[in-house]
Design brief:
InterPro entries: CBO0543-like. By secondary structure, this protein is mostly helical. The chain has helices spanning about 5-25, 30-40, 40-50, 55-80, 95-115, 115-140, 150-180; strands spanning about 80-85, 145. The chain is built from 7 helices and 2 strands.
């Protein structure tokens, strides 16, 4: 093992210890922590309103939303475009509640209600604007999200393209399944 790699491993240990200490001291049982934990309520609401005849299709769409939003978020954090000072738990990246619960739940509801492409695109643009200019500033106000080299305006096309992309992929998979 090279000396550089050993140095990287040592830094990872130090980072792990610092993150755990920060989580115990600053995050655990804080108001943003409770907000993150309570986000699971969105999934419960979604289960109550989901169209059961399209359950698998809508769940696939939500799963793809979670996957791609997590990939985009990890990329943004890696390039220090934004960071997350608070975390619900110390093991997984802090953005997991938003990427795996909040965004998929909201996108699945939009997907279920607005089935035609035209209405879905209009609703998705509205959702993108809302998430960018209302949702993100609220999470900043909570102290759970900190844009460093990012503006709210940049999020609009990201949210919109995420919505369009996951709908297109979901439709392609559903059509593939129907054709067999």
């Amino acid at each position: 093992m090279s000396e550089d790699f050993q140095h990287i491993i040592q830094r990872q240990y130090e980072l792990r210890d610092s993150e755990l200490a920060h989580w115990i001291r600053d995050d655990l049982f804080s108001f943003p922590w409770w907000v993150g934990v309570s986000s699971v309520i969105l999934l419960w609401i979604w289960f109550k309103v989901v169209d059961r005849s399209r359950f698998v299709e809508i769940t696939l769409m939500g799963s793809l939303t979670g996957l791609f939003s997590t990939l985009l978020d990890v990329t943004g954090c890696s390039f220090v475009l934004w960071s997350y000072p608070d975390s619900v738990e110390p093991i997984f990246p802090p953005m997991f509640p938003a990427n795996l619960v909040v965004l998929p739940s909201v996108y699945m509801v939009v997907y279920q209600i607005f089935y035609s492409w035209k209405s879905y695109m209009i609703a998705s643009m509205g959702l993108s604007l809302f998430l960018s200019f209302v949702g993100e500033p609220l999470v900043v106000l909570l102290g759970s999200y900190q844009p460093t080299n990012w503006e709210y305006l940049y999020s609009v096309p990201a949210y919109f393209l995420l919505a369009i992309g996951v709908k297109a992929i979901t439709h392609k998979i559903v059509r593939y399944q129907s054709s067999s």
